Each structure stands twice: as structure tokens, then as C-alpha cells.
Amino acid sequence: MGKRLSWTALAGLVTAAFAGGPLQAAPPESLPAEQLDFQAWGDERPADARCRGRYVMPGYRLPPPEPGKVASESSSAHYGEDGETLLRGEVVLRRDTAQLETPEVRVPPSRERAYAEGPMALRDQGLLVRGSAAELSLVNDAASIDEAHYVVHDQRLRGDAERLARLEDGRYRLSSASFTTCDPGDNLWRLVGGDVVLDRESGFGTARHARLEVKDVPVFYWPWVRFPIDDRRHTGFLWPTVGFSSDSLDYAQPFYWNIAPDQDATITPRWISDSGLLLGGQYRYLFPSAAGQVEGAWLGSDDAGSSDNPNDPPRRFEGEERWYLDYRHAGTLDPRTHYRLRYGAASDGRYFDDFGSDFAEQNTSAMPRLAQIDYRGDTWRLDARAQGFQKLDDPLLEQDKPFYRLPSLSASARWRQESGFYQQWRSNYSYFWRDIDETALPNNEHFDREAATGSRLHLSPALGWRFDASWGHLEPRLEWLGTAYELDYGNRDVGDRDTSLTRSVPVTSVDAGLVFERELDLGGRGYRQTLEPRANYAYVPARDQSDFPDFDTSERAFSWGQLWSPHRFSGSDRVGDLNRLSLGVASRLLEDGSGRQRLSLGLGQALYFEDRTIDMAGNPDELPANGADRYRATRDRSPLVANADWQVTERWRTRWQWLYDDDRERTERTGVDLQYRSPQGHALNLGYHWELEGFDPSLDRTDDDFRDYDREEYDVSFAWQAGRSLDLIGRLLYDNTNDRSLEQLAGVQWNDCCYGVQLVWREWIDDNDTGAVTDDFTDRGIFLRFVFKGLGGVGREADSYFEEAIPGYRSTAF
């Protein structure tokens, strides 16, 4: 669960914001690579290695002595009359896991301390410290080393200090020290400080007057800093985020609070020069049976008042509070019973467009709200919830406000017998409500229905029988859909419109298919080829639904899946009439050895025996008046549906879909995608997509995703590893119908041994929360992030967006 400061583990042991002393603290010059246990890779260099070599600790020169004893080895030994011992030559001392190598060691008569003259080397479990002189305790772990040069092998940390001392209480103290994760000889960055105290028992370090140097140039300064020296989470400042635009500075300084092992918080003051101070925060908890977080941000008064949308009035939000809140919680009451809570809200529909989020990728179209508990038994599944969301359209029309379910109660079950018979039960009761002014809606029958709120009870028991064999299947099924409403129209005058409505519709279907197989040899490899004809008949009678509301329903666009489904609508407010026979055939090519599918092909079409009179208006006696809708309702056969999925090689794959109206001889929708994936991390995507205007009946003309033109788009994207350290990223989404680029981005990522840089330029079309081209406008931005490995980074991460925009892209971990 831990979000922790960027400096890690033993990086703290001999690293950190080492400060102390004056800001001008100057560590000694670094040693060459061969004196720091550094070995260049040579021919055995791994393919993914970004460093020139690795640190390798040599074996101990002496076997381990008895606990508490000191073993020694030297070329000569001299014992003075006063009891002093002087060891010369190749002197080696070992106590437990610590080993000292030096030309000369002097041990006073007390035998409590030893003094080493350099150049000396002290080793201890992956740690190397070289120095000019050292003083070591022979009774405990205290030590002091002058002109120290240290390496922590596993963490790839190295640095230098005028003096490194281990105190009797176990803490470490460094003077004029530095730290970096760069290879020896490369000081692209390092942290330099004066007085540093490290406490391994508590896991903390403190430093005064610390500075970050890039190529020996100071770029950041801390007068005092507290930092972690192990993997435990610690309270402290995180790296800042800095953004610039032509007329604004955006600076955020996160502070991490480790409240308890199972709780933490991040507090982020953010200064936006033309808007003011935005205070953000996130609190997280992780308990044995529950987890959650609450986050948000608040701006007391927007000084700029402007939106990124050029269609908004000037300084529209000036002086207004702007904020968002998002609470999430999930837990279990027992192994079968789970619950979830969610509440999200924002001050306005433009908040995330203007300010983004400091903590996570937010859904910029809606803020969900949910209280849910569900039980999953062997037979029954029960679900109770209160659910809704704030729609982040701006402006938001009354008729576009979403419905809340207060509450929604569901129960479902399924029984199956060995004979093949099965029974299914599904039921739902929901009360739908939304906060609108009913009288403000336009005065027509459609908006009379839109004004309704109230309850809906929906029952859908089903009975079926399924025969399954390796050579085919047969499944007749009967489902009964019963729905009852109790409606309220508020202050709207709807005349004598009924408020109590019922509907009962039987849904009958028969699904059957055969599977033929043959062995096939292609290119010396064995395959199985299948031929799978399939037929599906569905009958649903028409019922008058013209007075029924539309709480959660939309008509589905035609697809391969719709060939085999009797349901023309999603949701429960409409049941579409249907008298249809679907015929199709599929073929697959399977590898004999693994059973892996290499190629699949499908072709199908539906034949209609009656017109489909039920649309969203619900009147069975009237066909749609609109030309496209009327044609869709009266055509005697569906478009031909063809698809293919071909795994060409281990790296190349292509998918294709085509919906063709063989009556009017025109394509209604088509798309082809070609993908390349490489083990080295390369990804290439080529796509072409065409869709007839109005093809998807679920979209209203005011919806964001609606296109008031025949959509023809080209999509090209790639992520290419140009070298061990260099990644190139790019995308072009082109609207050929309107001769414009919907999105362009180009980026470069340099991922070296000790640092990483992301630089990305992006330009895109914002749809302004409408489906009209005239409302669209262009937005653009440049994003920069750099990371010092072992310290952290500055700038906002773009990886999550890249992985969504460029399929197959996986960022190299910084």
C-alpha cells in the first residue's frame, strides 16, 4: 500500500540529502571504477542492461571467526613493550561479517580500538568503504573513516564523504558527503550535503543544507530534510511537480504522512499562478476485511476564472469555488458477502479539464456514486444497491441529467439437471429518481416520458434445454419478461397519462450448431480445421410501450453477437419485437500440439419475417418516420457480417470486421487492425475504421460519441525501442471525412542507468461534450518528466495515458 519517499533502502545508509555543514560542502573526488568493485559487462551483457557494468563483491579473505572474536592476517607483527601491537604488510582483520584490508594497523594495549593507515578498505555484506585512514572499535561496531568512498552493491549506490562514522548507538554520521546511482565516472547527478545522521533502527535519516547537482550545477536545495533509509514508509516531502504554460506557473509540493502501518495520507498544496492556491489531499487505509481511500481538492476562489474551452464565456469561473471529492471503500462481511461504497462529486463539469487530478486518472465524464452489498451463493445471487452518478457535461441540459436508483434490488438463480434442462430466475426492483425541473422540458410526448420518475419491477424467469456434444449443440429456450411501473410526473401536466403500467412479453429462441473437423498439414505443421455452421431463430411479439419511460435503455447497434441474441435493447424499459432467423458459419484453424487458435473466420446474416415496429418511442402501430431508422426497421435482412482474426506469426496479428448491406450495396461499418508485438518491447498498430452516419441507434445526436457524418478514420501508433536506452513513441488519429487530425502525439523516452527522461508533445480535438463538429476545438500540450534513479522524479507521469492510446506499449520502469 505504501507510497513512500523516493530515496530507498541502503541508499540512506551512506547517501541521502547529505547536508550539514555549509551549502558549499565538497566531498572528495571519486575513485576509479576498478577500485569500487565495478566490472564492465563485456560479451555477457544482458539484452536489457542499461548500465555499463555491475558491482561484484569479492569473497572474504578470512574464514568467519568465532562470534565476538577478531581474526587477523598480516605480513609482519610487532609487539611493543607497553603492549601495543603493530601489524604491517597486507593486513586483514575480520569480525563477524565485517572485514578490514589495510597496509598497517595499530592496536593500543587496551585492545579496544584499532587504527588503520590507508589506503584501506572495509567490507560488510554488500557494502564497500575505502578511505585514507580509519579508527575501529574491536568490542562493538563503531568505526570512523576519513576520505571515505562507499558502494552499496545491490542498490547500485555510490558516493564520497570527508568522514563517515558509525556511532556507538548504531547511527551513522557523514560529513561533506555525496550520493548517486550513476556508473563510476558518470556524475550526471548527485546529492551533496554536509551533516547527515542516519538511524537504521528507526529507518530515518536527517540532513542539513542538502543540494541536488546536475553535471556539477546545483539545481535544488533543502535547508533540512528527513528521508527514509529502508523500505518502510516514512513521513516527509515527495518530489514536487512543476508545470509551465505561456502565461502560468503550476507548482505542486506533495507531503506524505505515514499515519500507521495500515493508513497513510498525501497532502498537496498546489500553486497555479493565474488561479490561486489549490489544496489537494488523499487518505488511504487497508484493514483486514476492508480498504478504501478518500481524495479531493479545493480552490477557494478561481482568480483566472477561465476555462480551457474557447467556447466558454471569458472568465466564466472567476471568483467561484472549484473542487472535487472522490471516496471509495470496499470490504467483505464473510467469504460470500461483499460490499462497496463510492461517492464522487465535482463543482462543475470543467474541473478535470482545467485542473486534472493529482492522484489518479479520473473519469472526466462522470463521478460515480454507489452503495452496494451482494451475496454470492451456490445457487442464488443477491444484490442491493443505491446508485447514480454526476454527469460532467458542461452545460448539462435538464433532459441529460442521469437517473439514480434509490434503491435497486436484484435476485438471480440458476438450476441445471443432468438431463440437460435448466431453469433461470432473474428479478429486479428499482426506484428511479433524478433532480430536474419537469416543467422546463419541451412540451411534447417524448419529454412527457422523460419527465417520469418512479419504480420498476422486472421479472425474467427462463426455461431451457441444452444438448452439448463435441460435434454440435441444440438449445431451445423460453423466457418471460414481466415489467410493472408506478410513475410520478411531478409538477408536469401530462393529462390522463397512466401512472401504473404493466407489460408481459414471451421471448422464444432456438439455437443450434454443428462442428466438423479435419486434419490439415500446412508448411510441415499439423493443424485442425473446423467448419461450424450455426442457426438461431428468435420470436418476440410486439407490445405497446409508448407510455413507458426510458430509465436505463438504449437500442443496440448490430454486430456479430446480435445475430445470436433475441434482445434488441439493453436495459429493461423496452422489449423489441423480433421474428428472425440468423444463419452463419465459422471456421477455425487450431495448432495440433497446443490447441492454440491461429485463424478464425465468420460470416453471417439475419433474415427478418416481420418489420420491427418497436423503437425507443415504443409504439407498435407506427414505424419510425426517420429515413435511416425506418429502413433499419423494415429491411427484410440484416447486413452481412464478416469477421476474421489471424495470428499471422508470433509477432504479427490482424483483425477485420465488415458489415455490408447487400440490398443497397454499401458498407455500413468496417474496420481492420494490424498489430506488431516484439519481445524487445516494440509495438506497431495500423488501423482503418469506417462507419455510416447514424449506424449506432443507441447514440443521440447530442451525445459526445455521436458523429454527424460518415466516419472514416486512420489510426497509426507505435512504441519503438531504438536502443537499450532510447524509446520513441507516436500516434496519429486522422479524421479523413473532415480532413483533420483528431490526435497527434510524439514522444521520446531516455532510460539510462541512473536517470530517465520523458518528453511528449500532444495535440488533440476536444468534442466540447457534444456530437457536433462545429463545437470541437483544438487543445495541445508538452509534457516533461525526468527521474533520478534512487531519488525520484519531477513532472507528471504520462505512462497510463500512453498505454491506453498505444496498444501494446509498456513503459520501461524508471
From TrEMBL:
It comes from the Bacteria. It holds the Pfam family LptD. The keyword Signal applies. Residues 1-25 form the signal peptide. Its main location: membrane. Keywords: Cell outer membrane, Membrane, Signal. InterPro entries: LipoPS_assembly_LptD, LptD, LptD_C. Residues 321-723 form the LptD C-terminal domain. Residues 298-317 are annotated as: Disordered. Coiled coil: none annotated. It is found in: Cell outer membrane. HAMAP family: LPS_assembly_LptD. Together with LptE, is involved in the assembly of lipopolysaccharide (LPS) at the surface of the outer membrane. Component of the lipopolysaccharide transport and assembly complex. Interacts with LptE and LptA. Belongs to the LptD family. This is LPS-assembly protein LptD.
